[in-house]
Automatic annotation (TrEMBL):
NCBIfam families: dctM. The complex comprises the extracytoplasmic solute receptor protein and the two transmembrane proteins. The chain crosses the membrane at residues 6-36, 48-75, 108-129, 141-168, 180-202, 234-252, 288-308, 328-361, 373-399, 419-439. This is TRAP transporter large permease protein. GO terms for cellular component: plasma membrane.
Length: 445
């Protein structure tokens, strides 16, 4: 059997182990060791994979992961999401589908300081869903808009997935952050347009009582914010965004330093707001450690698997398979996107990136593709998996956070389906018009 055939079999073995319940990092590292041992012998397998483990996270660049995770969790524990929602609702309540627009807008702002989709899903399930149900929105739409907008946290910088992709492909973290701004705004705009369109064309999907526009009738029940309240609730969040992203894009400090400064600023804000107790801060530190250890273990395992595939010659075989075809680039991208969508039904976002990117990156490099653009396409496509069954991690988080047990998991998936289709539309736009990734250039950024 040819080496590349063993490499292809290893992909199926990893998927089978995941289906059997194995942790993705264990599956990756185990299959990597067996593959190299079969091709080169056990001693070489031990040596090669030990080097992979040592090299994969030895750079100080990896300090950016726990720092941004810490910053995001501190802001999440400080009720910043609720304040962002209150401010967005204040300005958008009079528009048809206004609470849906407020949820998307506040999630986009929240994403700029957390970078974690699951955190956004948990926060806005408790903040937005009860308010939308009270004002006559359909339960399916209420949970669907929260699920859909939660994925913005993985695209709008500082996103953990952008950081992981940059490290994995040896790209600039700052450049990946820069590239995520335009597509993040684009996806938010498509969501808002979709919500307004559904409110006019499919009112029974949006509203619970005969498709009636409830916002105007019930808006008086909600307290109005004064200008001082808007500044008090929105000011700290905007300040943190300016400090972190402004410092990176302005060349004042590196992304790793930005993570440290952002975490310190988030802690100061939380203390000033008196919204973070010692117990909750300890829980934030523990969760930061758990997330960091999990991500680093996954990166180590992915590095092992990437080198094992190289030993087996799979990337070279795939490159040879598609070379010489006039339309091979679009064909490769189509295959790549379809495979990611399928994997998204069973595997989490980080794991998909760590499996698929090392497999296809050499091919796209050989075709002269923009690796930053490739990363944005990858992350948006991967995030669709958060909304699709059977895994649909964002949908499960929403179900676990819901105060209303009458809403079933199937309602959440059906409510999130239009937003998954909107994401697929944005992927098609970015594949067709790659310059959308660098939309900041149009404004002299």
């Amino acid at each position: 059997m040819a080496p590349y055939e063993l490499g292809l079999i290893s992909i199926g073995a990893i998927v089978a182990l995941i289906y059997a319940g194995a942790y993705i990092a264990v599956a990756l590292s185990l299959v990597s060791f067996v593959l190299v041992a079969m091709l080169k012998g056990t001693p070489i397998a031990v040596h090669l994979l030990t080097l992979a483990a040592a090299d994969s996270i030895s750079s100080q660049t990896f300090a950016v992961i726990p720092l941004f995770v810490l910053m995001g969790l501190i802001m999440s524990a400080s009720n910043v999401g609720r304040d962002a929602y209150d401010v967005a609702d204040h300005f958008l309540r009079r528009i048809r589908g206004g609470l849906g627009l407020a949820t998307v807008t506040s999630n986009a702002v929240f994403a700029a300081v957390t970078g974690v989709s699951i955190a956004a899903a948990a926060v806005f399930t408790r903040v937005a869903v009860p308010e939308m149900l009270r004002l006559g929105y359909h339960p399916r739409f209420a949970v669907g808009v929260v699920a859909g907008s939660s994925v913005l946290g993985m695209l709008i910088p500082p996103s953990i997935l952008l950081i992981i992709y940059a490290i994995l492909t040896d790209q600039s973290i700052g450049m990946m952050f820069y590239a995520g701004i335009g597509p993040g705004i684009l996806l938010s705009a498509v969501y808002c347009a979709g919500i307004i369109g559904m409110a006019f064309l499919l009112p029974r999907f949006v509203y619970d009582v005969d498709g009636r526009f409830a916002d105007l009738h019930a808006s008086s029940d909600r307290p109005r914010l004064s200008a001082l309240d808007v500044i008090r609730k929105g000011g700290p969040l905007i300040l943190l965004i300016v400090i972190v992203l402004g410092g990176i894009y302005g060349g004042v400090f590196t992304p790793t330093e930005a993570g440290a400064i952002g975490s310190f600023a988030a802690l100061i804000i939380a203390i000033a707001r008196r919204s973070l107790t010692l117990k909750s801060f300890w829980n934030v530190l523990l969760e930061t450690g758990h997330i960091t250890a999990s991500v680093c273990f996954l990166i180590i395992a992915a590095t092992m698997y990437s080198r094992a595939l190289t030993v087996a010659g799979v990337p070279f075989w795939l490159s040879g398979l598609v070379s010489g075809e006039g339309d091979s680039f679009l064909l490769v991208m189509l295959v790549y996107i379809v495979v990611i969508l399928l994997l998204g039904t069973i595997i989490d976002s980080v794991s998909i990136i760590l499996i698929m990117v090392p497999l296809f990156l050499p091919i796209l490099n050989g075709m002269g593709a923009d690796i930053v653009w490739f990363g944005i396409v990858t992350i948006i496509t991967v995030e669709i998996g958060l909304l699709t069954p059977p895994l649909g991690m964002a949908c499960f988080v929403i179900k676990g956070s819901l105060p209303d047990n009458r809403i079933k998991l199937g309602d959440i998936f059906s409510g999130a389906a239009p937003f998954a289709l909107m994401m697929l539309f944005v992927v098609a736009l970015i594949v067709s018009f790659p310059d959308l990734v660098y939309v900041g250039r149009w404004f002299g950024m």
